[in-house]
Specification:
74 residues
Length: 74
């Protein structure tokens, strides 16, 4: 059985980082070249982002993919 453990943690950490960086959903969407609706889906844990976008999110917030996925706490 395959279990993707990081999705809920990603939703939580994405929103936390977006707010900490003073970005609205619209600002984050523009910087990541995605729709505002997609940002909402991520934050609600309804969708996951693709690999390239995950890397862009990590770069935008100056953090690691491991942190975004809940594998580390820093």
């Amino acid at each position: 059985m395959f279990y993707y453990f990081g999705m809920n943690k990603f939703a939580e950490r994405f929103k936390e980082l977006r707010v900490e960086h003073g970005l609205s959903r619209a600002n984050a969407a523009e910087k990541l070249n995605v729709s505002v609706r997609l940002i909402a889906y991520w934050e609600n844990g309804e969708r996951e982002c693709d690999f390239d976008t995950l890397l862009a999110v990590a770069e935008l917030f100056s953090t690691s993919v491991d942190y975004l996925l809940g594998k580390t706490d820093f």
